[in-house]
Design a protein that fits this description.
The chain is an alpha+beta fold and about 300 residues long. It contains 11 helices and 7 strands. The protein has 3 domains: about 80 residues, Arc Repressor Mutant, subunit A (Orthogonal Bundle), CATH 1.10.10.10; about 60 residues, Alpha-Beta Plaits, CATH 3.30.70; about 100 residues.
């Protein structure tokens, strides 16, 4: 991809990058981070100064950042509601791939949408996919999980009236329909295999000490984005339903090692940026978190 295209993509995602930086290095810290440091951080991702300042202003106008001014200088921190939402999303991403018990029950959603309202069908299908459902038959979707509240919200918000939800167990029979056919497991496996190859190369570089701090900062975010993409596309099938050599476990092991080992390298780079941006003022010190830290409950300081 051309460098200009990558920079354009980074600038479009600058607001999300800012929130990611707060969560990665000032998680739960109530202190305000100087805007000069935030601009410098986004610069490490190829975001220009003007685009970085625009992203900060946009988040502040939306109420996702809280700002304070000291003379000519401004500083920001995550607003509580922004922190809570991002924390919940981060918790789900970091927990993904850990063992989960299964009660051997399937959740089924059966629906019928009249032809006159066919515009609702793609929206409902997408909502069901987002919840990990797969289509066993047209109008019959299944998942081994039980996101019952979320299903109810989707049906209500899309005004799908002719629908029923069941929690049932399968009765195996010779020649019956294979339930796993509701998902494209071949494509999912290919995604995991590709990530495993990339992470094995990255982890080897980290172990060899050849990853500089600025590269570690950017790469750690990229690794998280890759893991998040897989987490969003994976229906969360129980291990007992999957092949014995399913690559998710290896992918998670590598993700955890990469995330945890890149953190301190990126933290040192952020500290250098903080010293440069301080200009004699007190700057809250960054502190990276490990995967285990991300899963622990945290109370935000007042």
């Amino acid at each position: 991809m051309p460098a200009g295209s990558r920079q354009g993509q980074r600038e479009e995602s600058a607001p999300q990058l800012l929130i990611t930086m707060f969560l990665a290095y000032w998680f739960g810290n109530p202190e305000f981070v100087p805007s000069a440091l935030l601009v410098a951080l986004l610069g490490a991702f190829g975001v220009g100064d003007a685009a970085a300042r625009a992203a900060i202003s946009r988040l502040a106008r939306r109420g996702q950042l809280e700002g304070v001014r000291h003379g000519r200088h401004t500083a920001y921190r995550l607003a509580p509601r922004s922190f809570s939402r991002a924390q919940a999303e981060g918790w789900r991403m970091m927990r993904f791939g850990t063992p989960r018990a299964w009660d051997h029950q399937w959740t089924c959603v059966v629906f019928s949408i009249p032809e006159a309202e066919r515009g609702r069908r793609p929206a409902l299908r997408q909502r069901l996919r987002d919840l990990g459902f797969g289509p066993l038959f047209d109008g019959f979707w299944i998942t081994p999980r039980a996101p019952l509240d979320a299903i109810d919200r989707a049906l209500q918000e899309l005004e799908v009236r002719d629908a029923a939800v069941f929690r049932v167990s399968e009765v195996p029979r010779p020649g019956g329909t294979e339930l796993l056919a509701a998902w494209d497991l071949a494509a999912l496996r290919a995604g995991y295999d590709d990530l495993v190859v990339r992470l094995e190369r990255l982890v080897a570089r980290v172990r060899a000490g050849t990853v500089p701090g600025d590269d570690a900062l950017v790469t750690r975010v990229d690794v998280c984005n890759q893991w998040r993409t897989l987490a969003e596309s994976d229906p969360g099938l129980p291990p007992e339903l999957l092949p014995a050599n399913w690559p998710q476990r290896r992918a998670r092991e590598l993700f955890v090692e990469a995330f945890d080992s890149l953190g301190p390298l990126g933290e040192e780079f952020v500290r250098r940026l903080a010293r440069s941006a301080a200009r004699g003022r007190t700057t809250p010190q960054p502190r990276c978190r490990r995967v285990a830290d991300c899963l622990a409950p945290v109370t935000v300081g007042a």
